[in-house]
Specification:
By secondary structure, the chain is mainly α. The protein has one domain. It has 2 helices and no strands. Helix 1 runs antiparallel to helix 2. The longest helix is centred in the first third of the chain and has 20 residues.
Length: about 50
């Protein structure tokens, strides 16, 4: 349980970092142009990775 929560938190942080440093500035990229969606996708990937 703690591992999954930690995976979600780390994934969300990495998703935000990806948005901040690599993301799409033009708005044409549906995932990386919005920080909320990037964080959600990062958290989901972290959840699946720790499963």
């Amino acid at each position: 349980m703690v591992t999954r929560i930690l995976g979600v938190v780390i994934g969300a942080a990495l998703g935000f970092a990806y948005y901040k440093f690599v993301g799409c500035r033009s708005g044409a990229c549906p995932i990386t142009s919005n920080p909320y969606i990037s964080v959600i996708w990062g958290g989901l990937i972290g959840f699946l990775f720790t499963g």
